[in-house]
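Recap from last week: sequence in, structure out.
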Amino acid sequence: MFKKILIANRGEIALRIIRTCKEMGIKTVAVFSTADKNSLHVRFADEAVCIGPPAGNKSYLNIPQIISAAQITNADAIHPGYGFLAENSKFAKICTEAGIKFIGPKPEHIDKMGDKATARKTMIEAEVPVVPGSDGIIKDIKEAKKFAKSFGYPIMIKATAGGGGKGMRLVWDEKDFESNWNNAHNEAASAFGNGDLYIEKFVEEPHHIEIQIAGDQYGRACHLSERDCSIQRRHQKLVEETPSPFITEELREKMGNAAVKAAQAINYEGVGTVEFLVDKNRNYYFMEMNTRIQVEHPITEEVIDFDLIKEQIKIAAGINISGKNYYPKAHAIECRINAEDVYNNFRPSPGLIHTWHSPGGHGVRVDTHSYAGYKIEPYYDSMIAKLIVTAQTREEAINKMQRALDEFVIEGIHTTIPFHIQLMKDEEFRKGNYTTKFLENFKID
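Predicted structure tokens:
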């Protein structure tokens, strides 16, 4: 087992990893930018190293600085968390070359699944259902136009790199194709340094369902059931729950087996998530694979009583997994609490937190790095906390979430709490009648 792990990340996920490491008797090293010097992950790590100024490319994306921090503190492993360098195969390779274990998949796994066109091809070969579309990257707009016309509208233009909705465009008609193609290309090139695009069929009334998987160094793989991530705004998840109110037991079994097959196709090592789109007729299609821990991993932990960070560390240390699949024993919901003004088009709301009161009680969990007196800087993602509740039934979980949100007091900045309170009261949401398009007509009072 590792003696010391450096966490190459910030905020709540860095603190989350530190907690598990301490429970395992492993020393921790936090890295931080000058903007994050007062963050809780810096305070609670055994050691902390400043790696640069606020800008991500000069700190949390600065590979030489992070490797140097690991070397001077004698860390024998690096956990990348999510975002930043978590799916950077170059970073994983450099860690290995420096004699430091990267807690995550091998570089070739990241490359295979991080590039969506390659991942799609791999899944076709593994006989995992994929959304109908182009065979891979389309080289130019002339070929793209021809393919779209023969394929039929509506279609989705997608960037092969990255995620979060960047480089993605829905096109309903041929006359709008060229402008959307060019915009998607430019956005992808700017965000990911890769403007390559491909085309897929547009799945109408889709549900975004992801399957948590784990694979060890010896070829074993298993799934830990599904999460429903369909409550989204501009392709950014806001609420997740497990089990999904839309998925049947039969479909859960099929999708779980497909996700395991996807992991086994590349001899996947580590924890990861296989993401699917499920249409209104419950046909499911592979969308992408995230080769890292997900923001929403706590709801899976709560319903199966399992520490996924601990599992990541054990797999990286060469410990084998049981290979058995896991299924929910309860119902859990996660609300992402972002520093955003929901009454002003979710505009980011950085600033000083004057008052902070976290909810508590049975089945309530808050993952955060924030507190009263903490300043939310404008340089990073706006998520400041995750509120997770667990109960025996979905109705009980929603009621518990309502109560917990009412208790959650954050003053000094705007947050998404008012949005979540209203959503939990919405009749259609409470019935489980929602897709990824649900928020398009959702009005915040």
